[in-house]
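Section 5.1 Outputs to date
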Amino acid sequence: MNKSIIGVMGPGDGASQKDIDYAYELGKLIARQGWIL
């Protein structure tokens, strides 16, 4: 079975707390699908 590889791009050092919170939740959702982040 092939696994999907997901890339998530964002503001980096300029990230707000809201950006960080969204990225964390997105990472959890990606992991639950068994995809590679």
